[in-house]
Amino acid sequence: MKIIISIIFLFIVGFFTYIYTWDIPVPEKEVKKEINILDLKK
């Protein structure tokens, strides 16, 4: 179970780094929502 969660987490992190390096304008609200979700999981 932990392996699946870690893979999903790595996928999310990789996806966000891909977006930021690609430099696509993302609505701040969506980014903040995702950051809040990640902070709650910690």
> Any idea how many domains?
1
What's the helix count? 2
Shape: flat
Helix-strand string: HH
Helix-strand makeup class: mainly alpha
* DSSP E strands, number: 0
Q: What are the main properties of this structure?
A:
single chain; 42 residues; mainly alpha; 2 helices; flat
Please provide a brief summary of the model.
The protein is built from 2 helices and no strands.
Report on the architecture of this protein:
- The chain is mostly helical and 42 residues long.
- The protein has one domain (2-41).
- It is 83% helix and 0% strand.
- It contains two helices and no strands.
- The chain has helices spanning 2-22, 28-41.
- The protein is flat and about 35 Å long.
- It starts with a helix and ends with a helix.
Write the layout of secondary structure elements.
Blueprint: H1 2-22, H2 28-41
